[in-house]
Amino acid sequence: MADVLVTLRDGRQCSLDAADGELLMEVLRNGEAGVDGTCGGACSCGTCHVYIADEWAARLPAKSEDEAMMLEALADFVELKPTSRLACQIPLTAEFKGIAVTIAPQVE
Ligand code: FES
Predict the structure, then answer these.
(1) Assigned domain for 57 exists
(2) Which CATH number belongs to the domain containing residue 66 in this structure?
(3) What is the pTM of this model?
(4) Which residue in 49, 76, 93, 95 has a CA-CA distance of 20 to 30 Å to 25?
């Protein structure tokens, strides 16, 4: 089974491998899935915004205050969904292997 199932901005799907504990942002960035991860995971750029598949979203750890604030700041530019998360805040430990995500629209 692939570690991460990705729906790209153009609707195509791909699967990416992840090392244990690797950040979802790093997997998406290295896999050229359209995620820049400009701030390197400091919760300050919002370029790693993804929509987590419903069946996975509830299983993830709760958002930190910093993540919630960054997402709130994105709301003026891009659609936020209840399952919106910053991929840099999600380490892919074994329990999250197979997670399905959709890359959110790019902020212009
Ligand atoms: S990489 Fe910048 S907010 Fe996630």
Answers:
(1) yes
(2) 3.10.20.30
(3) 0.95
(4) 76
